[in-house]
Every structure is written in structure tokens, then in C-alpha cells.
Amino acid sequence: MITALSSFRRHMSPIGHEVRRLGLRMIGTVLTALVLLVVIGPVPAARALDIRTLTSPQGIPFWLVQVSELPVVTVDFAFAGGTRIEPAAKAGAATLASGLLVEGAGDMDGPAFQDALAARAVEFSTGVDRDAFSGSFRSLATEAEEAAKLVGLALSAPRFDADDIERDRRQLLVSLARSAENPQAIASRSLLAGLFPNDAYGRDTDGTPETVAALTREDLAAYVSRQFTRNRLTLGVVGDITPEAAGRVVDLAFAGLPAGDGRPKTDPVSPSFFGETVVDRPIPQTIITFALPGILRSDPDWFPAFVMNHILGGGTFTARLFREVRETRGLAYSVGTTLYPLDRAGLLYGYAATRNDRARETVQVIREQIARFAEEGPTEAELAGAKKYLTGSFPLSLDGSGAVAGLLVTMQIHHLPPGYLDDRSSLIEAVTADDVKRVAKRLLDIDKLSVVMVGQPADGAGSAAPAAARISENGARSTAPNSIQ
Asked: Which intervals of the chain are annotated as region Disordered (predicted)?
């Protein structure tokens, strides 16, 4: 199910293999029962969070929420950039570097570095997506400064030893080979490649077998030296820690990084909507992904669009697409939509899975429901239900210090004020049916609906869209898709 938070926080997009924390590495021994309780334990509800905006002694800004019930500290961080700052010929460098950060730093090789983390029960993870290189570390409050020193060493002096590079390269190549045969991965990758044919957003975040095979230690070092700079950094700290101690932790982890030459450009990029494409695969069901114009998080119409998406296909049993496609007609095993706000473009992303002989009918019903929503807008009952769900479910998503720390980072990335959480429910409640209908007419342009079907959808009655391009198993396109700007 797509939650309210998943639409709000970039790193939880439902395009899982595309925006997941790639190369995630969790390091450390099994924590004590107390620490495990903290990791999964509750934190104050969203409305009760006291967010403090602070600056470390070395001048690094960060947000802090003090939670003193249990003695743990979590630091979540993101460096603006991600895979979109990779040169196309070096695609995969960010993913490979992400996994290697825990394989040794400074004068400690991989085993020594991991032993140092384990000795202090430090949990450290990193990952990368299209817009950011992100990570987090968590420890007992008494070990927070030592944890920060280790993380700072990993970021400022990663070893990238030859044996480690080759081992992780082999693992990444295996992952790419599996992804090339995974229908869900193919569908999502093909959709984004079609929407962004000449932009980094259209590239696989893991790179290609050719680019990964050619990566050198120098390529990895060049990527991290460009990526890990203080002026690209966003930070959230949550836990049993004073502002003064939090400032020391921040400096120990990040003050050793160079200032950098500025954040990456965020010039908008317009998706190239392309009609329908079939990727031929001999499988018994068809995986469907589709996209329409979306919205940036900074757009004044964000909340009407947020409510619109929930009513249309937002992952609950009451969504129109779920009712019409699955419940009423029994066409699909799963169906839904979500807003996908990238830094430079916005999409309304959708998915479905069904039998090959019902794929085109499924697409046609999706098309009809989108067109109907654009024309009629929501009912008052749908609007009331969406508001109740979106306001009521959000605090439940903040079920641990990691979730709160991540939320602090996301709020800063999207330039939301610390008081946003106090206003969020009222902003949703203020959305009217006319607001939703207006935004639906703006975004749900059926002529721009782009669809990828992976499988062997039967020909015949079905979608009224332009004739689909078909891609054979070797990936060669037999006809070019229609590009709609």
C-alpha cells in the first residue's frame, strides 16, 4: 500500500527498483535489546514534534528533534546530486561507491572498519537515487561521537581497495543481469527511458553492464569528491542528545568535507510522453506501468494533486482504479498510482499487473477512468474519505527515529518550514472538490498517457490509444513511439 509518507518522501517511491536505497549496507553486530526497541519504538506524533533549526560550531546547518525516552541517536543525511551528476559513460559509479563506503576508510581496511562499527553497535547505511546520495547512522547516545568519527572517515577518506571494487563490481553485474530479466524492473526502466530519452533521469541508476565493467578506482574517487561536499548536504538529527552535543556529532561526521562549488542545477526537464510501448517477454502475465504529467513538490497545487492522486489510485481499497479495475471487473492483480516528484520533473506514476489476454482491456479501463476523473472530478464522499485517510495515517508513518530523521531531511530538501507539520492537516482539509477537479484537468491529459506493457498482451479489442511500439526480447524497437511534448 502506498502511504501518505511514501508520496511525500522521495526515497520511498513505489518505483522500488528505481528509487530504492541501492547497494544498501547495514553494518554492525546485533544490537542490544534496548537498541532494537529504540529502532522500532514509537516517537511523538507529527503534531508533537519540536523541530529546532540549528547550526554546528563549524557552520553546518541541521534540524534536531530531541527524543529522550530511550538513549539512541539517529542522523539522516542527503547530498544533492545522486546519479544525475554522473557522466553517462560512468553510470553506476554512484551505486558502486555507495556499497564500498563500508569496505574500509582511512588506515582501516574493510574488516577493521566493520569491526570498529560493530564494537560500538553502530548501524550505518548509504544509498543513491536520481537526485541524491543519502545515508544514515544510528547508535547509542553514548557512542554518537565515535559513530560520527567513523562515518566522517568513510565519507572523507574511502579506501576503494582493488579487491573490494572487483567483488562489488561482480555483485552489481549479477544484479544488472537479474534486473534485465525482471518484468517489473523492465517496465519501470522502459517507462523512464521513454519519458527522459536524453536526460540522466532516463538512465538506469545502476548503470549498464558496459559502464559498470569499465569503472575504475579513479572514477569512484571522482564521483565522491564531487558528491560529498558541505554545500550539497542536508541533515536531520533525532534522539536523546542536546543541541550542543548534536552540533559536535554533525561536525565530527561532516566538517571534514570540502565546501564544494554549489548544488547541482535544477533546470526543469519536460518528459517526452510517447503513447504505448510493448516489451515482448514470454511470461504468462503482463506488467503495466504508465505515466502522466505530475507536479513538483514546490507547486502551489501540490495538495489538491495529492488528494486527487489518493482518490484516483492512491493505494487504498477505495481508490477508483482499484474499484473499477480489480473489484468490479477482476482485471488486475494490483493497480495504483502515486505522485513522483523529482527535483527537475514531476510525474503521476501508475502500475498494474494482469493476464496477457486482459492487458489491453485493463489499459483501456485505466484510460477511461482517468478521462472520467479529468472531466467530472471527485464526489464529496470521495473527497471526505481522502482527507480523513491522508490526515489520519500520516502520524502512524512516523513510527521510529529513523522515519522522523528522514522526514526532517525531506522537509528541508523541499524547502518546507519547521512548522509545516502543524499546518499539514489544515492544508489538506482546505482542499475543495473544485480544486481537485481543476488540478485533474491540468494533469490528467489522456493524450499524454504513456504506457509500457511487459509480457505478451493479446492483440484485439482494448486500448483506444495510438498503436503501440513493440520491443522484441533483444531490446530492438520495431517502431518508434509517438513523442508528445
From this structure: 460-485
Domain that holds residue 93: 4-254
Q: How do residues 129-147 score in pLDDT, each as one tens digit?
A: 999 999 999 999 999 999 9
Please give the sequence-ordered ranges of beta strands (E in DSSP) within 249-297, or none if there are none: 276-280, 285-293
The predicted structure's pLDDT at residue 471? 46
Question: Does residue 34 form part of some domain?
Answer: yes
User: DSSP secondary structure string, 411-466?
Assistant: HHHTT--TTHHHHHHHHHHT--HHHHHHHHHHH--GGG-EEEEEE-PPPSS---SS
CB 335 within 8 A of CB 313: yes
pLDDT digits (tens, 9 = 90+) for 285-343: 999 999 999 999 999 999 999 999 999 999 689 999 999 999 999 999 899 999 999 99
Distance between CA 144 and CA 123 in Å, rounded?
A: 11
**Per the domain annotation, does 215 fall within a domain?**
yes
3-class secondary structure, 349: strand
Question: Total domain count for the chain?
Answer: 2
- Based on the fold, state whether residues 231 and 199 are members of the same structural domain: yes
The grid coordinates listed for 27 are 553494518
User: What is the pTM (predicted TM-score) of this model?
Assistant: 0.86
Amino acid, single-letter form, for residue 388: K
